[in-house]
Amino acid sequence: MTINKSKLSLTLFFMKGSVHLFLLSMISTLAVSLSEMITPKLITLTVDSIIEDKPIDASAAAGKLAIRLGGAEYLREHMWIMAVAIIIMALIMGVFKYLAGYFGTAASETLTERTRNSLYFKIERLPFSWHTENPSGDIIQRCTSDVETLKNFLSEQLTSIVSTVLMIALSLAFLFGISGTIAMIALLSIPVIFSFSFLFHRLIRRRFAECDENEGVLSSVVQENLTGVRVVRAFGREAHEIDKFTRQNVKYTNCWVKLCRIMSGFWAVGDLIGCVQVMLVILAGIYLCIGDKITTGEFIAAITYNSMLLWPVRRLGRMVSELSKADIAIGRISYIMNAPEETDAENACPADGTGDVEFNRVSFSFDGKNNVLSDVSFKIKSGETVGILGGTGSGKSTLMQLLCRLHDLKENQGSITLSGVDIRRLTARSLRQAVGIVLQEPFLFSRSIAENISMARIEGQEIRGASDIDSDMRKASEIACLEDAVNGFVHGYDTVVGERGVTLSGGQKQRVAIARILLRGAPILIFDDSLSAVDAETDAKIRRAIRRELKGSTVIIISHRISSIMHADDIIVLDQGKIVERGNHSELINKNGTYKRIYDLQSADASESAEKTEMEVRI
Amino acid sequence: MNENEKNAIHLPFFGIPQLLPYLKPYGVLMIVMIIMGLVGTAMDIIIPQFQMYAINNFIANETTNGIVYFLLLYILVIVVQTLSNMISTYLASKAELYVGRDLKQKSFEHLQTLSFSYYNRNSVGYIHARVMSDTNRIGTLISWELMDAVWNSSYVIGALGAMLAIDLRLGLLILAIIPLAALLSWMFQKKFVTLHRQIREENSKITGLFSEGISGADAIKTLTVEDKVGKEFSEQTNRMKTVSVRSAKRRALFTSTLSFLSYTALALVLWRGGIVSYEGMMKIGALSVFMSYATGIMAPMQWVVNSISALVMAQVNIERFTSLMNTKSDVSDSPEVIEKYGDTLNPKCENWEEIRGDIEFEDVSFKYPDGEEMVLENFNLKVPQGANIAIVGETGAGKSTLVNLVCRFFEPTKGRILIDGKDARERSQQWLHSNIGYVLQTPHLFSGSIRENMLYGRPDATDADIMNALKIVSADKIVDRLPDGLDSQVGEGGGMMSTGEKQLISFARAILSDPKILILDEATSSVDTETEKLVQDAIGSVIKGRTSFIIAHRLSTVVDANVILAVRDGKIVESGSHRELMNKKEYYYSLYKRQFEDEAIEKIEKI
To answer: Are A416 and A403 in contact (CB under 8 A)?
Structure first.
């Protein structure tokens, strides 16, 4: 439960810009607590001295005030003065309550805003390898629930910690002022109530986690059933599904019921301890009153102060137990915040994408053992079109990720140069602006198609012939054969895609991504199997349009469809991280190797048409 | 995409009558819960009386006579209070959880009977929320909200009664404040509900942006749009902050006004009560108790209002749940069929006939429930046992329609489909489904091991059967490569496997179930070329003796089919054998040519 320094400094980092709000919130909370303490004093004074005719205690502040206002006699005649005094107190209290509520939220929300922004910017600056190593669900969890936990702790606990401690201290002080015996009873009960509350929250936390887990399982059972509904129906396994669901539903429910049984028991015992403590205070008060040690007014005040003590103590126990929860949360957040960011080399220079691309003896491995690429060397001349063919796991995508520096090559892993400069000596940003890549599973943002296409546009790199962003976009969609699809939507280019809008088919997504890259006007274009979901005819049409419109660009096409790459100036065949064949289409066909074999597989059957006997089928 | 909220039903009485059948089993439990809650409240009201009694009897008379009985009674009350609170809270959580569980169960079971048109109309996320969150909200409503309402309203009523009993005039004074406070709460509460909803919306947008920023990291990096998305993100977090602070201001204004009101009440009591008491008409003890009631009544009042607004908010949940339960399946078995063949939950397998696999479309016309146009009109096709039908066409042309009808995922709008000479509707869906093997283009695996997924096809298969099936589609290599073999976990939705691997495993799963009717819906589209070749060779032997439908993208796989149906824009435009269609030189011919037209494309390129 110890907060180590890095976590503390991280918390302070997040608090930058909200410290004053937190302080104001603490002060207001304190003011509320104090005004809540003064009111009983006023009541005691009224009941004791004014109504019951006891001498005013001139040493207390309220007493002084009462004397200045004209003494008991005068106040008795003008009872409204006391009422007005209380109402004024209530007004002051109301104002501070408002301020406490406002500052508290403003503080925690400012902090959360900063935390979220810091996390988001940090995540975008982390190297791609970090993203592949960490499951996205887990990162999202850290960015949402853990931030929420931290926020709740700081907003609910931190802002009130000063007032809670002070309330306890003041209540005790007042109690000691009234009667040492009563104060001792109250004081002794504090450790009991505190540790009970602390242990309780400690104990149920683990069970909470267990129930949460069960809920997660139940939720994914439903999720899987819904996404796999076709499979369930096709196999007629509804009963099995219901059975699976029922078991988990019962397990989940019983887990909670058990937790609730424990909780209701603990709550009750907690209440019981509180009630017994109050009873003891009343009992002691009776004897003290009878023994004339305290006045009736003091008796009533003692009970009030005692009740003011109970909640803060229970609260404190809870707070300490929550602290450990917040500690875990901040630890999980710091995992992200402390990860090393992607950096450029010192004196990194901007990339020039108009030159040749060269891979020099590139070897690469993710885990340090198995090489994904071994000793790959080739050169792509500026303006050439190169096709890369290879099976699953041949390393063709890794090759392109290296070119975009999504992964960095180490010193001994060879080098990649662009226009003769080692890409490690270029700024990552300029390199990625020079190299436009369309990924195999393109990612679209959940906004309109127009925004998706135009968001990657770089000023000064517009494709030729188009002057403004709108016609630019239309030109790009035309090349990507996207126009017809877009025109088919009711809202055209304003159609929102993803979660909140229409779902695009794989081919449509790929074409949006292609249009997006075209609009970018990068001198080097990579299509990483990005026409796989488009039919062969459209594929050919797009490639033709690209050739026509983007003369002078270097184009790299990765595919396992021969027809997509057969017209390239140069074709590289990769197998298990090595270049096995290289040449243009006719050279490779003549070589009679892997390329030829795949070519035959894909275009076979044309000759061996159906000479089979046909069954009696009538239409 | 989801069933429009506009179509939602509106129920009288907040939809509570709809819930009654689900509450019935817990009637006794809920009554005990309420009684215990009332007992607890009664004790809450009694406890301050001990304080009054102590002041008026022991302290005023300076005697401790009878203090033992006083103490015993006090302890008794505390114990009763503790027990009743414990029981009522426990029962409330039980009611919450059990009703939630039953509602989940019913909705899940109902979902298993709904036809695909429902699933096509509603996104998975939407349906998921109906099963998981709506039921939880309803559970909370009928337990905690109910308890809160009972506790607080009874406390308010009880305390008012006590105050009136102590002093009528002062009591009436307090009573006058209540409507004012209630009105205030009501006004604020309405605003809270909308603000709360807004906050949740903004929050879910933040989560959405986070997930976009994380899962789209490679796209963001390669597009170098970090600054752009970062700016949008900060705008969103700022919006969230603005809304939250606005809501907090409202809430703070509300609580401080309410607290001011309650202290004003206190001041009034003190002023009037002081005069009354000074004149000797009211005991000081009574005054102090009266004051504690007067202040204590304010918080419960606020809670009563809270409960009411919770009920208003939960109405939406109840309506959504009810509309789900009221949704009728487009495809359902008639009572006679259920009588004979059983339903989803209790299939009467003993009455199920052997299937042969003759399928006949007889004057079938069909349009999708949400569609405008007929996609089939007076369609006739006789598929004898063992025949192989291929369906070809471009992506999105509607190739799955026929298969959906064969599987009875949809019913024909007109005409009928005969299976072994009998109308499909004369036998249960389960009977039919248990005889069909369907391999989907987007394969779905369930989290668990490969074995568990394979057994989905045939629960009693042995490991040898499983390996055999895997071997047929060359998926045994996948299993061999994994460290845990058949016990290897596939992850949620099969997420730990590649699409190609998932396709092969789901293909093997269908083979294992040894169906009489086999449907391959682009079953190997994501498998690499060489493996696909192996699988294609295997298909020939797999479909032997089975009636099969093959939907294919790559035409080389369908040339052997008995009948090829070419689909365009949702309609069947051509049918016949490969040779017939090639000779016809129309749509199929052009499709076929296009795919192997490399030479031609090359020529165009070179111009």
So the answer is: yes
Tens of pLDDT, residues B454-464: 988 788 889 99
Q: Which domain holds residue A382?
A: 345-438+524-536+557-603
Residue closest to B593 by CA, chosen among B552, B556, B563: B556
Q: Report the candidate in B516, B542, B507, B510 with the shortest Cα–Cα distance to residue B352.
A: B516
CA distance A321 to chain B (A): 23
User: Measured between CB atoms, does A596 come within 8 Å of chain B?
Assistant: no
Co-location of B306 and B382 in the same domain: no
pLDDT at A17 over 70: yes
CATH code of the domain in which A87 resides: 1.20.1560.10
- Shared domain check, A505 and A370: no
Per the structure, how many domains does chain A have?
3
Q: A53 exposed, middle or buried (CB, 10 Å; 0-12, 13-18, 19+)?
A: exposed
Do B354 and B218 belong to one domain?
A: no
Q: Please name the residue of chain B whose CA is at the shortest distance from the CA of residue A402.
A: B222
The number of distinct structural domains making up chain B is 2
Please say if the pLDDT value at position A1 is more than 80.
no
Q: How far is B316 from chain A (nearest CA, A)?
A: 21
**Judgement on whether residues B19 and B117 belong to the same structural domain of the protein:** yes
Mean pLDDT of the region B391-404: 77
pTM for the whole thing?
0.73
Residue A471 lies in a domain: yes
CA B138, B139, B144, B149 torsion: positive or negative? positive
Identify residue B143 by its one-letter amino acid code.
Answer: S
CATH number, domain at B68? 1.20.1560.10
Q: Are residues B339 and B273 in the same domain?
A: no
B276 & B353 share domain: no
What strands lie across the sheet with A554-559, from one edge to the other? Answer: A435-438, A524-528, A554-559, A385-390, A570-575, A578-583
Q: Which residues of B touch A433 (CB under 8 A)?
A: 224
Segments forming the whole domain that contains residue B294? 11-326
Residues contacting residue A148 through CB under 8 Å, at least 6 positions apart: none
> Is A257 in Cβ contact with B93 (below 8 Å)?
yes
Is B208 close to A499, i.e. CB distance below 8 A? Answer: yes
Which of residues A97, A129, A160 is at a domain's end? A160
Does B563 reach chain A within 8 Å, measured CB to CB? yes
Residue A152 in contact with partner chain B when CB distance is under 8 A: no
- Beta strands (DSSP E) in A134-253 are none
CB contact at 8 A, B8 and B319: yes
CATH number of the domain that residue A447 is part of: 3.40.50.300
- Are B341 and B314 contained in the same domain? no
Q: Using a CB–CB cutoff of 8 Å, tell me whether A92 touches chain B.
A: no
B443 occurs within a structural domain: no
Does any domain span residue A580?
A: yes
Distance from CA of A411 to the nearest CA of B (A): 23
Give B-chain residues touching A231 at CB under 8 angstroms: 438, 440, 444, 456, 506
Q: Do residues B302 and B389 share a domain? A: no
B235-264 tens-digit pLDDT: 999 999 999 999 889 888 988 888 788 778
Q: What is the ipTM of this complex?
A: 0.79
Q: Rounded CA gap, A74 and B431, in Å?
A: 95
* Selected residues 59-88 of chain B with any CB under 8 Å from a CB in chain A: 59-60, 62-64, 67, 71, 74-75, 78-79, 81-83, 85-87
Partner B contacted by A141 (CB < 8 A): no
